Every structure is written in structure tokens, then in C-alpha cells.
Amino acid sequence: AFMEGMKHNRSIEEFRFHHEIEGDSIIERLAPFIIHNTNLKQLRLFEVDLGFNCAHRLAVALIQRQHKSLTRLSLKYNNLSNEALEEIIAALSGYKQLESLCVEENLSRRDQKYYDMLAHIIDLKCITSSKKN
User: Fold this and answer.
1) CB neighbour class for 7 (10 Å; exposed up to 12, middle 13-18, buried from 19)
2) SS3 of 36, please?
């Protein structure tokens, strides 16, 4: 019932979800909220176990958003691979107000592809944070 009400709410500016569940169950319900909420500025999904399929659905929702008003996107501890992060980052290309993208503690490998993604984030003019190994 809560998530059903969420998808119709257009006034929420910040949404935080922290729970150890599989991402499929949350992203499917959260996608309409992400797409249609015109005021959403901050989206934080922490320990949701997104994986690649959920990352793809999240990326599609971000692309379909008419109001590219996100200033902060945090996806910490979500089992995201480089490929999943790459898809999400590509979906953020129209988000000119994005100030912070946090993707630490995922499955991403620190290889050339990872550093290419970081360069793409810098091109988006996002502030990034990452723990050093």
C-alpha cells in the first residue's frame, strides 16, 4: 500500500530506501514514482541488491523522467557491476543539476572500464566520492 501511494505522490523531494531486499521488488514499484515525481531532488538506495536487471530498469526510469531535477543519486552497497553502473551513468547524461553521484561499495572492478566511467561522470560535472583501496 505504501509503494502504491508513492507512485502517485509528486511532492516528495528526497527519497531514501535502506533495506536488505532484492532490488526487483522495489525498483518495479519505485519506477513510476521516479518517472513522474517532478520535485524529486535526492534518491538514495542503500543495500537494495540492485544487480544488472534492476540497474537497467532504474536507468530506463531515469531516462523517462521529464524533470531531470536530481541533485543527488546514491547507490551504495547494491551489488552493481561496472556494466550496471555504466548503464545508470549513461542515463544521467541529461541531468545538468546533478551534484553528487555516490556508487561506493559495489561490485565494480577498478579496471580501465571503471576509470572510463569515472571520466564520463566528470564530463557530466558530477561530484563523485569513492573510498580509496
Assistant:
1) middle
2) helix
